[in-house]
Structure formats: C-alpha cells, structure tokens
C-alpha cells in the first residue's frame, strides 16, 4: 500500500486537535488506514546516508501513514485531513462545482489529430485565486509524484503538467511533432534544448531517465503550446521553465495527457478537488473546453456525481449486523458518500451519490465495505458459519500433509514466484516460451517468473539451510507411502488402474536415476537424484533426491 509522509503537528492542526500516538493509531484503525512509522525528516536523511548522529529535540515529527492503493484522495495531507474530519463528523462532505462561465469564456485546448498515434487524450482545468504556503506548495508537487507512481503507472498512462496561467495566453494546442521541431527551455534549466537533445541530456538524470522509454522511439513527440507557441510541456518527460509554478502563483492551469481517458479524469479530479480548498472560492473549479480536430468537444473536469442504489439487506447480510437505513446513511456520509434512504419495490434501499473524490467506489460491495469501516470492524460480533464445507482438494491435502509429517518429513512453504534463472538455467532447463508466465515489470530479480515446479523453491530452501542436521527431509517425497495411504496399487507398466514408474529424461536429474510417476494412465509427477550441477547452482554440497506430485490428480 502507498505510504504518505505528513508532518504530525501540521496534520493535527488540520484536524483541529492533538492526539497521543495511541489515540491517532486508533483513529487510523477505525478509518481503515495504518500509522506505519513515526520518524523525523532528519532521521530519514541520517538513515539514507548511514549517519550515526544523535537526534535533536526540535526535529519535526513525521507520521508515515499507509493508505489503500485505490484511495487517491488520501495521498496528501490535505486530502487525508479532510477525509478524517468528515469521518469524525467535524464537517460535511464538500460539494464541488464548476465556475459558472459561458462556453465562449472558457480556455480552450485544441487537439491535433497526430496525437492519436502516441498519447491521444488530454484533459484540463484551472484553479483560480489559489493561495500556497510552503507546506501546501510542497504537498501539491508531492501529490503529482504520488499519482505518477500509482494510478499513472510511472507516467505511461497519464502525465500531469501544472502551470502558472498568468505566464501563458490561450487558446492552447496539443500536438505531436518530430523531436527536431520542438525547442524550449525545460524546467530547472536555463538553456534551450531540442526535444531529441533532451532525450540524450536526461539519460544521466536519475529521476527522469526512467520515463524516456515511453516516447523516445516514436517519430513524433507530444507537446503542448500556448497561443504564442510557448511550450507548456513535453509529456510525459518535463514541463517548460516558462510556465513553472511558484509559491506566488495565483492561477494554476492543469493538463493531463494520457493513453487512458478514464484514468486521466480520475487524476485531474483528484488534483482539483483536493486543492480547490485553497482557492478563494472553495471547491470551485474553472472548466476548460477540449476541442478535437473532428469538431467534437468536451468540458473538463467532469465533476458530476455517480448515483447507485444498493439494497439495505445486501449491506447488512454481508456485514453480519442488523442496521436501520437511517444508521447506514449516517455511516456512509462519514465516508464522504452522499446517502439517503429509498424504496425499491417493497424493499428498503440506499441511494448513494458518489463524489469525484471517491473514484474507488464502483460496486455495491464497495459501499458495503465503507459501511463496515464506519461501523467499526471490532464492533461486528464474531460468529461461526452454520456450515463450512472445505474444498475437496484442501481436505485431501490436509490428510496427505498430516500423514507425511508423521513420518518425519518437514513441510516447506515456498514463494509462487521465483527468478527466471532459478526456474530454467539453474535447473538445466530450456525455456520453450510457452510453459512459464513471465512477470512484465518485476520489482526484484528474485520474483521474475511464476514457478513451473516446486523444485526451485525447495532447492533454494535446502541451500539456505546447509548447516541444518542431516538428513534434511522435505515433504515432497515418499511416493510409495502416499500411494499406500490413498489405496493406489503398484501395477505393471501400461496398466490403466493403479500406479507405476517409467524412465524419464529431465535435465535437472541424473540420467538413469529418474522416473515419471504414472497414475491411472496419466503422468502425475517425477522423482530422481538431482544433478550435481543443479545442486552446485543452488549452493548445496550434499546429494539430494527430489519428488514432486500433483495431488489434484487423485481427486
């Protein structure tokens, strides 16, 4: 889950009271988030630089708070504090609205058809008469980074650009041009670069180089201009220096270019709803008209409420408590959902209006979950289902597990994911490009592929436990004992009932010291003496035998 770092004192000021750490942890738990760590800014720096300096008493306390991955409105202090105030009944859910101006008076963004080949969508809005202080300005910038890492998928789906509107002149255009035709001064630079030069320049930039791949091989780059051909941004890489926002900025122009229009709308709505609270006219956003080359146009942001109806009985039955409609609507209002009682036929229902801040609410189950959170999970009485029948596979697995454990074998629970090398080359196996599921963007080289057998994890376990007293006996063995327990007779090769073994030729085992296990005419497993080269790959000094069976085959 994403972690939001906020200053404790500033957060408490926004909440209107102070809390002890225990009280705040309790508030977080009741709201469905978690206080993950308490630290200071200087302590974070000391940890990063491995310094041993002692802490100062006047260091600002930082709360690191884990929030749900789909609650984009909680990714900054302003949104988090507002949600907690509403949860504590300190204020009502805001009603967001568009500035009442004519279509002719709106700023316009004209989209050229060439953009369809690279980033086809753009949505925009204006925050008028906004007032930043240093903390809120930093939070505004930080929210963009959080969204870029989260819903924007590292800018591949959406890229956010924010600009000082007083430095620009509309109407604006969104175009796609050859990189040699784009020339501007990028943010935090003083000299002008061609776009192709920027690609080379940023290859040494630790932050920006990871975004270059998104457009660098395209014959055209997306770019936004104002009326005077001043470059606003080269998405998803960098904004222009000309329109950079500062603490003194009063009118912010926000543009989001995207390959996914739905996510672009969510990102824009998140930015403008949270920070419209800093505008002179709170919770009011100035719309922008986006005009496409075919004459069609749309007005953004889209702030209309999404209405849904949920049965009261569905909510109460899922949670396991009896609640009146009035109590349910009150609980939902605490979760920023406008709710009122209604009737659907002869059944009581709840009509919910979902605000633009709650893009995570998509289904009746999301509404039910919010009721459960507001009601308090600890307040739900514990009960045992009248009938709980385990799945046959799980029941059978438990029986086999117990039987083998009683013979002195050790059970090992290994990861479903492993490295590509462990799954193939370390087992002397070739990748046929059809057996294994490869993870597209792994966080670690230890988790690159979905394992195709249990062998890599088991050998890795043995390799990390070389000092364990021998013999190390793992649960995946004892073929004869398993067959005896389930009542499968040993039969001659070719007989269709019972089980037998026949020679195999797998590279991870010694030749002539391995076999397939055939049960009722179907291969259900393999066993043998592990090849010395494989053992060496996993740093195992002792000989090993290995067996793997598909228990599901016995059902």
From TrEMBL:
<comment type="similarity">
    <text>Belongs to the phenylalanyl-tRNA synthetase beta subunit family. Type 2 subfamily.</text>
</comment>
<keyword id="KW-0460">Magnesium</keyword>
<dbReference type="GO" id="GO:0004826">
    <property type="term" value="F:phenylalanine-tRNA ligase activity"/>
</dbReference>
<keyword id="KW-0648">Protein biosynthesis</keyword>
<keyword id="KW-0479">Metal-binding</keyword>
<dbReference type="InterPro" id="IPR045060">
    <property type="entry name" value="Phe-tRNA-ligase_IIc_bsu"/>
</dbReference>
<dbReference type="Pfam" id="PF03483">
    <property type="entry name" value="B3_4"/>
</dbReference>
<keyword id="KW-0547">Nucleotide-binding</keyword>
<dbReference type="InterPro" id="IPR020825">
    <property type="entry name" value="Phe-tRNA_synthase-like_B3/B4"/>
</dbReference>
<comment type="subunit">
    <text>Tetramer of two alpha and two beta subunits.</text>
</comment>
<dbReference type="Pfam" id="PF03484">
    <property type="entry name" value="B5"/>
</dbReference>
<dbReference type="InterPro" id="IPR045864">
    <property type="entry name" value="aa-tRNA-synth_II/BPL/LPL"/>
</dbReference>
<dbReference type="GO" id="GO:0006432">
    <property type="term" value="P:phenylalanyl-tRNA aminoacylation"/>
</dbReference>
<keyword id="KW-0030">Aminoacyl-tRNA synthetase</keyword>
<dbReference type="GO" id="GO:0005524">
    <property type="term" value="F:ATP binding"/>
</dbReference>
<keyword id="KW-0067">ATP-binding</keyword>
<dbReference type="InterPro" id="IPR005147">
    <property type="entry name" value="tRNA_synthase_B5-dom"/>
</dbReference>
<dbReference type="Pfam" id="PF17759">
    <property type="entry name" value="tRNA_synthFbeta"/>
</dbReference>
<keyword id="KW-0436">Ligase</keyword>
<dbReference type="InterPro" id="IPR041616">
    <property type="entry name" value="PheRS_beta_core"/>
</dbReference>
<feature type="domain" description="B5">
    <location>
        <begin position="303"/>
        <end position="382"/>
    </location>
</feature>
<protein>
    <recommendedName>
        <fullName>phenylalanine--tRNA ligase</fullName>
        <ecNumber>6.1.1.20</ecNumber>
    </recommendedName>
</protein>
<dbReference type="GO" id="GO:0003723">
    <property type="term" value="F:RNA binding"/>
</dbReference>
<dbReference type="Pfam" id="PF18262">
    <property type="entry name" value="PhetRS_B1"/>
</dbReference>
<dbReference type="InterPro" id="IPR004531">
    <property type="entry name" value="Phe-tRNA-synth_IIc_bsu_arc_euk"/>
</dbReference>
<keyword id="KW-0963">Cytoplasm</keyword>
<dbReference type="InterPro" id="IPR009061">
    <property type="entry name" value="DNA-bd_dom_put_sf"/>
</dbReference>
<dbReference type="InterPro" id="IPR005146">
    <property type="entry name" value="B3/B4_tRNA-bd"/>
</dbReference>
<dbReference type="GO" id="GO:0000287">
    <property type="term" value="F:magnesium ion binding"/>
</dbReference>
<dbReference type="GO" id="GO:0009328">
    <property type="term" value="C:phenylalanine-tRNA ligase complex"/>
</dbReference>
<dbReference type="InterPro" id="IPR040659">
    <property type="entry name" value="PhetRS_B1"/>
</dbReference>
